[in-house]
Write a structure and sequence with these properties.
The chain is α+β, with helices and mostly antiparallel strands. The chain contains four helices and twelve strands. Helix 3 runs antiparallel to helix 4. The N terminus is likely disordered.
Length: 226
């Protein structure tokens, strides 16, 4: 805002020695709408009768006051919206505890008598697709051949059996996948189904899922809620 306040107006408010320096130091944008209105009224009361304020100038100053007020209201609206979004996320988070999610964690939890399942995503058709399961020491436990597959999402499930036909002990296993493209094997992304044990709201309202046997996972990485 371009303030065309006269020296007489400032002097009449006893502001010449204080307000002028504050305006210079703080900048016009730091003044409130009440400050603008007070100065504008003082200017009108103390203007030169022979040289009154132009109508266009008066309207411009009123518009500046309105702009400052609108800006504050907009900031408050954004703050209220942000608080509402965080509250909604918290409610959504509470309902996810105990649910299963599909995500590219690469880790699967085998429970007693249970299984590990998930999907692999093929960017193009492959003549041979396989899922590999490794234990905590990096030892290959099972290779699941999925055969020839078209491009897209392919489901897999490991029943807990090793390649030798014995059952693997309960625990967390590393899941990887590979596919053959034009005669060469390439690693592809393996999504795994994991259970949500808890949910927390991180900095800025980010939703973090605590997955059983896996740990924290950004909610944005979830492919599907089951």
């Amino acid at each position: 805002m371009t303030t065309a306040m006269t020296s007489e107006a400032l002097s009449s408010l006893g502001l010449r020695s204080t307000q002028e320096s504050q305006v210079a130091n703080k900048g016009t944008n730091s003044l409130s709408s009440d400050d603008f209105m007070e100065l504008l009224l003082a200017e009108i009361q103390n203007q030169d009768p022979l040289k009154p304020m132009e109508n266009s100038e008066f309207v411009a100053q009123l518009a500046s006051i309105s702009q400052v007020t609108s800006s504050k209201e907009l900031q408050q609206s954004f703050a209220d919206l942000s608080a509402s979004l965080v509250s909604n996320q918290a409610l959504q988070a509470a309902g996810m505890v105990g649910r299963d999610v599909l995500a590219p964690t690469g880790l699967g939890v085998l429970e007693q008598g249970g299984s590990v399942r998930g999907t692999v995503e093929l960017p193009q058709a492959s003549s041979e697709v396989a899922v590999k399961i490794y234990d905590a020491t990096g030892q290959l436990v099972r290779r699941l051949p999925l055969g020839s597959q078209a491009a897209g999402e392919i489901q897999y499930q490991w029943d807990g059996l090793r390649d030798d036909g014995t059952y693997a002990p309960p625990g967390t296993y590393l899941i990887s996948a590979e596919a053959e493209f034009d005669g060469s094997n390439e690693a592809i992304e393996a999504n795994v189904v994991n259970r949500v044990n808890g949910v927390t709201l991180g900095n800025g309202g980010a939703l973090l899922l605590d997955l059983a046997g896996v740990g924290p996972l950004d909610f944005n990485q979830v492919k599907q809620i089951l």
